[in-house]
C-alpha cells in the first residue's frame, strides 16, 4: 500500500511540474461546465457522498457550489474551490478544471500562479509561508514585477518546487 501511495504521489508531482512548465508557454482551454458536472457527480457518487457531505469534506462552507457545478453552471469559479473539491474526491488538483485565471499571460507569473493554485494556497497563505507580501506575489503572477532570485527561491521552496521549475533560466532546456 505504501508503494502505491508513493507512486501516486510521484505521479501527481510529475503532473504538477508538467503543468507548471506548460504555464510558461500556454493557457489551457477551460474544462466545459458539462464535463465538470459529470466528473463531480461521478466522483461524489463513487464515494457515496451527498452534495453537502462533499462540500463539508472539501472545507467549502456552502454545498450550493456543488449543486451549481453539478447543474453545469457556467459561472466562473474560484480555482481553489475546485482544487479542494478534487482533493475531497481523491483526484489530482486539476481534475475539475482548476487553473490560473486566463488574464495571467503565459510565463513565469503564470507558472507561479499554477503552482500556488495546485497546492491550494491563497496569495495570503503563500505570502505567510514565504515572508513576501501578498501584493508582491500578485504583482509577480500578473507580470508586473520580476522578483529577485531570493524571492523565486523562497517561493519555490514553499511550493515544494525548485526555482528553475517556476522560472527557468534563459537557454535552459527545462
SS content category:
mainly alpha
CATH architecture of the domain at 29-88: Orthogonal Bundle
* General form: globular
Per DSSP, the total helix count is: 10
| CATH level-four homologous superfamily name of the domain at 29-88 | lambda repressor-like DNA-binding domains
User: Strand tally, please?
Assistant: 0
> How much helix is in the residues?
55-70%
Spans of at least 5 consecutive residues with low confidence: 170-174
What is the mean pLDDT?
91
Annotated CATH topology of the domain at 29-88: 434 Repressor (Amino-terminal Domain)
CATH class of the domain at 29-88: Mainly Alpha
Question: How far is the first residue's CA from the last residue's CA?
Answer: 32 Å
H/E series: HHHHHHHHHH
Name the beta content range. under 5%
CA gyration radius, whole angstroms: 17 Å
Largest sheet: none
Amino acid at each position: 500500500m505504501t508503494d502505491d501511495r508513493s507512486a501516486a504521489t510521484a505521479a501527481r508531482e510529475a503532473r504538477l511540474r508538467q503543468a507548471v512548465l506548460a504555464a510558461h508557454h500556454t493557457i489551457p482551454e477551460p474544462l466545459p461546465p458539462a464535463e465538470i458536472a459529470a466528473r463531480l457527480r461521478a466522483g461524489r457518487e463513487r464515494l457515496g457522498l451527498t452534495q453537502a457531505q462533499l462540500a463539508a469534506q472539501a472545507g467549502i462552507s456552502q454545498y450550493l457550489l456543488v449543486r451549481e457545478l453539478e447543474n453545469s453552471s457556467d459561472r466562473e469559479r474560484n480555482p481553489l474551490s475546485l482544487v479542494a473539491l478534487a482533493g475531497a474526491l481523491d483526484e489530482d488538483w486539476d481534475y475539475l478544471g482548476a487553473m490560473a485565471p486566463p488574464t495571467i499571460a503565459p510565463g513565469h507569473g503564470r507558472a507561479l500562479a499554477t503552482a500556488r493554485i495546485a497546492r491550494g494556497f491563497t496569495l495570503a497563505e503563500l505570502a505567510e509561508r514565504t515572508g513576501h507580501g501578498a501584493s508582491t506575489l500578485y504583482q509577480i503572477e500578473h507580470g508586473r514585477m520580476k522578483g529577485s532570485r531570493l524571492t523565486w527561491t523562497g517561493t519555490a521552496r514553499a511550493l515544494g518546487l525548485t526555482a528553475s521549475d517556476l522560472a527557468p533560466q534563459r537557454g535552459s532546456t527545462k
